[in-house]
Amino acid sequence: MTAVPIKASRPDADMSPVEWAARVDLAAFYRLGAHYGWDDLVYNHISARVPDAPDQFLVNSFGLMFEEICASNLLKAHLSGEVISGPHGSPGYNIAVPCLHASILKARPDIGCVAHVHTPEGMAVAAMDCGLLPISQTAINLLHDVAYHDYGKPGSSGEEERLVADLGDKNILILRHHGLMAMGSTIPEAFLNLWNLIYACKAQVAAVASGARLTTPAQDILDAPPSIAWANRKGGPRDPEGCIEWQAALRMLDRRDASYRK
User: How far is CA 233 from the centre of its chain?
Assistant: First the structure.
């Protein structure tokens, strides 16, 4: 996998406080991914829209592991793909970023953060004809927000358009024979969507491996319209005053290593 190089690199002396806050949160997402084992060497990527410049986004520099990401070494790029700024010597971003991130951020102004990972259980479920099964409460709660995308190489003709069309208005995309994508209007929401998706995949792989006959809830439960109360609740991932799960995760990170904030 190659990288899209930086044409010019410069420090952002005029960076706004809201951009810096987004950088800190995005760097925290990367560090959490490393902590929980969601990383894949230097591959995979998590992006966040710049809050006060919605046509720009932040993403990792290709070649860094998740545990090395901090607020100051994130790249900033236009949704067109042009890199605006980044750390000295950076090779740029992973070549899959325009397809898996920029195309979604362009098509879905409601999305503020996009995460893509290759967890073993996620890849296993992505290869199952049944897809994500409603055999756990975690999976059931996600069911109405999951879409699927048949395998295609980022950068190939029509791949971006096909990806966006398959995603539709959902916030979770299972890439067949590839991995997982989770997104949200905020960084905490994308993190929690990914957390729940990974947990649901782990439960499914364990259940299938057991060889036991699997059961699902009654159809009326599965057909019930999705609730947005979880995301919109006080202390939820869309609460501008803070998400309790995200704050707990940040406290854990700060106890272990707060260097993501630098």
Answer: 21
Asked whether the beta carbons of 145 and 172 are under 8 A apart, the reply is yes
Please, where are the H alpha helices in the chain? 17-35, 97, 103-107, 120-127, 137-142, 159-167, 187-210, 219-223, 229-232, 244-256
pLDDT tens string 90-112: 889 999 999 999 999 999 999 99
> Quick one: pLDDT at residue 5?
54
Task: Give the Cβ contact number of residue 42 at 10 Å.
Answer: 17
Tell me the pLDDT tens digit for each residue of 64-100. Answer: 999 999 999 999 999 999 999 988 888 899 999 999 9
**What one-character-per-residue DSSP string does 47-68 give?**
EEEETTEEEEEEEPPTT--GGG
Round to whole Å and give the CA distance between 224 and 226: 6
Domains of the chain, with CATH numbers? 17-257 (3.40.225.10)
pLDDT number for residue 153: 81
Model confidence pTM above 0.85:
yes
Structure tokens at 213: 């006959």
